[in-house]
Structures are given as structure tokens and as C-alpha cells.
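sry for the spam today, last one i promise. C-alpha cells for design, 341 residues
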């Protein structure tokens, strides 16, 4: 029986400077273990030689009908958007774009239903404890092969019809078909809104032994390398845009897609959803991607060179973050509150 009860979202996390570098550059990203022996995510000789993150999704040779209805979804170990650091209302930049892609090599065996979905998820609180059950499905609830994640609200491109699914509901007028041999990417742009007051921030010191060009975003009065961070309670929603790419061709999506949960107040993770046997391909993040637009290869290369403050960002005239005098009140504007829509 499907679980339709709402779940609270996980609280945005804080990250050490080394982790922030991985998040910004897309390097050394891994995924949860796949809960079935039918599939595995593996590193290959190509993976080792590829900058950024590349995983090969390998299926077994089995096309046993008894596994056809098995569906799993796995989430990355790091987000690509860390809300407490990456919100444009924290950084002051015009926008922050995140993006990753999947190169399809197979969409299943002939005559055996199978599908692939790629995109992003915002984790439910407690989602790490979700486990498979023993009734033949890898999903403990929602037994259908719906294009959604069990780890939380998701935004996914689905191979069955080329549609984009906002938490399991198809977004109108999205028909971006792809086949074996194609590469599909999903991106989200978080935009600065000058009508909303800047979020108050504090600076945290980075590793003093780290290279300034790689980890720092600013220097304090004593010359220490620092990063701006906001408190969870101060995060507010920002406008977002979503796009899909098919073989590097960008497909903008009209409307305020996924704003209810992908709005700049939560960490946003890559997620991979597979149903049925025989699906295979390559996960590409950071410098492994081919798309050159916002959030794609050019930004990943910039981050890998150490300019993580600007990777994925458009520079804004609001880039100076306003500090709040000690003891002063802070009055919010549109969308105030960590749950703003």
C-alpha cells in the first residue's frame, strides 16, 4: 500500500571545507549501495582516468521475469546544492546552477519492461533508515515503479515517456525522449531575488593548511580563509528554474516546477531510479559531464581549478553579504521561514 502521509524534510547539513570542495566540484561523489545483486555501480578504467565523478551502472545478464517489478533508487553521498552555503541569498550571486547527467547504454532487455529515471531528491528526515522488504520488491512502500524516490520529494526525468516528474506527478508538456546511446541531464538554477532581504551569515574558518585558491571564498580581518554559512532557521525560498538536456541540447521547462521542495532551503542530492532488469549506463558528475551550459562542464572545470566560490554561479552586484549588528532584529521579506514556498 502506498504511503501517502507527508514526511518532514531533512535539515540542511553543515560541511567541512574538504566536503564543500567535493560538493562544488562534483569530485568523489558516490551513491548508496544498490539493494540488489542484479545491479552494481562500478568504477572502471575509464572512471579512473575521468576527472570528476563517473560510475558505470552494470546489470547482470538475467532477464528473469520474477525481478521485472523490482525498483530501486539510490542517492548520492553529497548534495550538489548545500543550502546553508549555496543559496544566492547567502552568497549574493545572481544564481547557482546544479547539474548532472546519465549516458544510456541500455534501457532493458527485449520484451522485458524496464525503465530509468534520473534527477534530484530532497531527503525526508529519517530516510537513511529506509530498507528493502522481503516480498519481492525493493521498495518498502509504494510498490509501483513510479518515477519517484522513497528518500524524499524528487524531480526526475523518466525514460518511459520522456516526461519530467515532480514528486511522482508528470509536469505538463514535458516529452523529452531519449534512447540507448543518448545522454540525459537534469539541472536546477536557484536565482537571486532582490525583493527578499539577504540572509544573515557568519564566517567559518577553513582548513588553514588548505590552498586558498581551492577552498576559500573570502578572508577575514586576520587573513584567515573563511566560508559564509547561514543558520537553518534563516533560510528562505528563492525562485528556481529546471531544465533537461538531451545530448547537450537544453530543454527549458516552463512554470514553477518543484518550488515546493526544491526552493533553496534544503540540500539537493542526485538520485538514480531503476525499474526492471537490463538498464545500464554511466553516471556523470562534475568534469565528467559533457553539457557546457550553466552548471555543466565549464563550471565544473572552474570548480576543479579551485574557484569554488564562483563555479555554477552568475556574479551579482549583491555579492557583498550584509552583516547584522549584534543584538539587532532581522525582518524578513517574501517567503520568509525555512518552510517558505
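last one done:
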Amino acid at each position: 500500500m502506498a504511503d501517502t502521509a507527508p514526511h518532514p524534510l531533512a535539515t540542511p547539513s553543515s560541511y567541512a571545507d574538504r566536503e564543500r570542495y567535493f560538493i562544488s566540484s562534483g569530485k568523489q561523489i558516490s551513491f548508496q549501495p544498490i539493494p540488489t545483486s542484479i545491479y552494481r555501480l562500478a568504477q572502471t578504467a575509464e572512471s579512473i582516468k575521468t576527472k570528476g565523478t563517473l560510475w558505470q551502472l552494470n546489470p547482470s545478464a538475467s532477464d528473469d521475469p520474477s525481478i521485472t517489478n523490482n525498483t530501486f533508487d539510490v542517492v548520492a553521498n553529497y548534495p550538489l546544492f548545500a543550502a546553508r552555503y549555496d543559496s544566492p541569498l547567502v552568497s549574493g550571486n545572481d544564481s547557482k546552477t546544479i547539474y548532472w547527467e546519465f549516458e544510456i547504454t541500455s534501457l532493458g532487455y527485449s520484451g522485458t519492461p524496464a525503465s530509468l529515471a534520473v534527477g534530484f531528491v530532497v531527503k525526508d528526515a529519517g530516510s537513511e533508515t529506509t530498507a528493502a522488504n522481503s516480498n519481492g520488491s525493493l521498495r518498502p512502500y509504494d510498490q509501483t515503479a513510479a518515477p519517484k524516490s522513497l528518500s524524499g520529494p524528487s524531480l526526475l526525468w523518466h525514460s518511459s515517456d520522456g516526461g519530467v516528474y515532480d514528486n511522482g506527478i508528470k509536469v505538463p508538456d514535458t516529452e523529452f525522449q531519449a534512447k540507448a546511446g543518448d545522454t540525459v541531464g537534469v539541472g536546477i538554477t536557484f536565482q537571486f531575488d532582490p525583493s527578499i532581504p539577504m540572509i544573515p551569515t557568519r564566517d567559518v574558518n577553513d582548513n588553514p593548511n588548505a590552498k586558498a585558491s581551492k577552498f576559500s571564498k573570502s578572508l577575514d580581518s586576520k587573513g584567515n580563509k573563511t566560508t559564509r554559512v547561514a543558520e537553518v532557521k534563516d533560510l528562505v525560498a528563492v525562485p528556481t528554474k529546471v531544465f533537461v538536456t538531451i545530448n547537450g541540447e537544453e530543454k527549458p521547462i516552463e512554470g514553477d516546477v518543484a518550488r515546493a521542495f526544491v526552493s533553496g532551503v534544503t540540500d539537493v542530492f542526485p538520485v538514480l531510479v531503476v525499474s526492471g532488469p537490463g538498464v545500464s549506463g554511466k553516471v556523470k558528475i562534475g568534469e565528467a559531464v559533457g553539457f557546457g551550459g550553466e552548471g555543466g562542464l565549464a563550471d565544473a572545470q572552474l570548480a576543479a581549478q579551485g574557484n569554488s566560490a564562483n563555479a555554477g554561479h552568475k556574479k551579482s552586484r549583491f555579492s557583498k553579504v550584509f552583516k547584522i549588528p549584534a543584538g539587532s532584529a532581522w525582518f524578513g521579506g517574501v517567503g520568509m521561514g525555512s518552510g517558505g514556498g
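The mean pLDDT is 80. ok im logging off now
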